[in-house]
Amino acid sequence: MGQKLKIAGWVAIGALAGALTTVQLQAVARGAMSPLPLEELQQLAAVFGMIKTDYVEPVDDRKLITDAISGMVSALDPHSQYFDAKSFREFREGTSGRFVGVGIEITMEDGLVKVVSPIEDSPAFRAGLKAGDLITKIDETPVKGLTINEAVRRMRGEPNTRVTLTIFRRDENRTFPVTITRQEIRTQSVRGRIVEPGYAWLRVSQFQERTVEDFARRLEAIYQEDPNLKGLVLDLRNDPGGLLDAAVALSAAFLPENVVVVTTNGQLPESRATYLASPRYYLRRGQPDPIRRLTENTNGLFKRIPLVVLVNEGSASASEIVAGALQDHRRATIMGSQTFGKGSVQTVRPLGPDTGLKLTTARYYTPSGRTIQARGIVPDVWLDETAEGNLFSALRTREADLDSRLNSGRELSEAERAAERQREQEREQARQRLEEEQRRNPGQRLLPEFGSDQDFQLRQALNQLQGKPVIVSRTATERTEPKAEN
Q: GO MF annotations for this entry (predicted)?
């Protein structure tokens, strides 16, 4: 057995050495590289060999190596990721705003998939799924034990194929199956309308490939409806981000040409860059410029109109770039709560025809040089979620709460540590309050829809634009970055 293990180990070392030679040649081509840690690589090869010979059942070589790569990458930070063929395709679908599936926004709750909202006019919407529904099975597979990405993969598929979801609806206390035919879903990342004479609301829910064009067309339509606009509310609440060039483009719609929007800094020379409010920093070759068209078609109105930007703990990445640029250039008043704090840039590098690596390659900085990694954008005016206060915001996760996150290396004071302990208590109180509200109001939306007449924060943003009194938060305070665990 020992001889067999030794042979397997040397075979594994040979295979890995061949692969690593290629990696080393590629790395040298990119620049200087430290010598490979041969002792650790021999240990990796030994483990590979032991699994091949001793594991209870045969394991596919490709799976072992793929899982090893995935583990190595995912341990770096929460945003780096190895893409196999299927996840790479799904990632590209997500940034394009088009995918084949059932058409629901989801989250995880108690190990089950929870429907946040069915996308309007999607198969799930037409099948009668509701916000708050819990998915317990996807076809014959129990959801318990699946990650959210695994659940998404099972619900997506080829057009016109069927998937059966088992639904538990709390307010009716019943479980039932729903069979849905998958279709291509086109998500709409931009919505907007005139909310009062002279004042408009524009919501961007994600920065995708079509966002800039949709953004420009929506503002052009609003201008056609009311050319005498006096103010605009740009709503970036719960916007998780997306494409950097889209964030630069949206910032350029409101800023003077050629001012700094964001800077990045990392190990590689191409990771150290400055992005300006100029077409060459957001347009791909041969594309028309929707932002220039918008400016020309609206007589430059959106370069000078009074502007409020609404943000919250769910505003991350690209939405923080926009908020930070507009805040630093004093172009807008930022209102709401402290943002998520994802101040890192991910670069997607193809590894072959259908696999890739999403790797954190830089941190980004606002025009004044502020890093927002694990800190976020601090609003100019703090707002509660509702007139009754911040009911559930303590439950929202921020970058500072994530394991293995990048940090700024700053130590916390004792007062800041005490504030962190207080936040944990508030989180538990908010969790108990949420459970009680769900028992008393089963199946009902506990917070008003963004942009509705009951949207408290939107009302305060309009008051700010109109010079009326604003009900500011009396309890919200800036959250500092907790010390990262080593």
A: endopeptidase activity; serine-type peptidase activity
Question: Is pLDDT at 10 greater than 70 in this prediction?
Answer: no
266: three-class secondary structure by DSSP: coil
Highest mean pLDDT among 19-28, 88-97, 396-405, 436-445: 88-97
Considering the candidates 87, 122, 317, 344, report the single residue annotated as catalytic: 317
| Residue 171 bears catalytic tag | no
60 an active-site residue?
no
251, 342, 344, 384: the active-site residue? 342
pTM assigned to the model: 0.74
- Catalytic annotation, pick one of 239, 328, 384, 455: 328
Residue 54 CA: distances (Å) to CA of 3, 48, 51, 60, 62: 13, 10, 5, 13, 17
Residues 6+ away with beta carbon under 8 Å from 76: 359, 360, 404
| Domain ranges for the chain | 2-88, 98-186, 190-466
DSSP 475: S
Q: Which fold has domain 98-186?
A: Pdz3 Domain (2.30.42)
114 is catalytic: no
